[in-house]
Amino acid sequence: MDIEVLGPLVACLHGHSFAPTAAKPRTVLAMLALHANSVVPVDSLIKELWPHGRPRSARTVIQTYVLHLRKLISASWPDRDHPDSGAKAVLATVPGGYRLNAPVEHLDVAQFERLAAAGHRAREVGDFIGASRSFSDALTKWRGGALMDVQCGPHLDVDVQRLEEARLNAIDCRIDADLRLGRHHELLGELSALVAQYRTHEGLCAHLMLALYRSGRRGAAINAYGRLHACLSGDLGLEPSAQLQRLQRTLLTADRDSAELDASWHDATAEGRHRIVAGDFVRGR
Hints:
Elements: E1 2-4, E2 10-13, E3 16-17, H1 23-34, E4 40-41, H2 42-49, H3 58-76, H4 83-90, E5 91-94, E6 97-100, H5 108-124, H6 128-139, H7 154-180, H8 184-197, H9 202-214, H10 218-236, H11 242-253, H12 259-272
Antiparallel strand pairs: 1-2, 2-3, 4-6, 5-6
Helix pairs in contact: 1-3, 3-4, 5-6, 5-7, 6-7, 7-9, 8-9, 9-10, 9-11, 9-12, 10-11, 11-12
C-alpha cells in the first residue's frame, strides 16, 4: 500500500488505485489518509464535507462513501476469496468513526517527517553535511502542494497549512546548512525564486542577502532588503525585524567573512522563522 498526500492524493494497493474521482468521497479518503492509523470521527468528516450546515442524511451519506471506498479497495485485494474482509481491515469501522490502516513506511508524510527530524538532529550537533542531506531527502517526498487535487474543508485546510509550514521550514533549514557549507553561488537562483514566492519571509530574505553579499554583490543584497521593506510596509504596515535591520547595517560595513556578519545573519534567520506572515502560505494548485 502507498498513501501520498504531499502533492496530488495517491492511494494504491498492490499497484491499483483506490482513490475515487468524485469530490466528496475523495475528501473523505484524504481525511483518512492524512490521519492514517488514527481514528477520524464521523463528526469531523461531516464538518469537513458540509462546513456551513449538515444535511439530515449526513451520517448515511458518509456510510455510503465509506462503502464505496471499500469496494475500490476490494477490487485491488490480492485474496480474491475474501476481498470484503480485507477491505474492512484496511478501512476499519471503530467506535465513533473510521480508521485507515497503512504501514508507516508507506506514508509519504511519515517519511518526510522522519527525514526532517533527522535533519534537525544533525543541525543541532553541527553536522551540516548530514543536515543538508536529510532535509534534501525529506523534500524529495513532495510532488506539489499538499492535497492539491482535493476539495478541502476547515479541517484539511488547517492540516495543509501545517504541512506547508513544515515544508518551508525544511527548505529554510536546508539552505541554512548549505550556506554554512559555503554554497553561496549555487543557492542564488533557488533563493531568488523563493524570495519572490514568499515575499514577506524574513529568514529567506536574510539567506539571500548573505548569499549575494558573499558572492560579491553587496548592492544586490541591499536591494533585496529594500524590496522586503517595501513589501512589509506597503502591504502590511510592518517594519522588518530589528535583527534583519541589523543584518542590513552589517552588510554596509562588515568584511565578507567577519564574525559580526555571521552573528547578524544567524539572528535574522532565527527571528525570521518566528515572524512568518500567514499570507506566505498559498496553497499549491
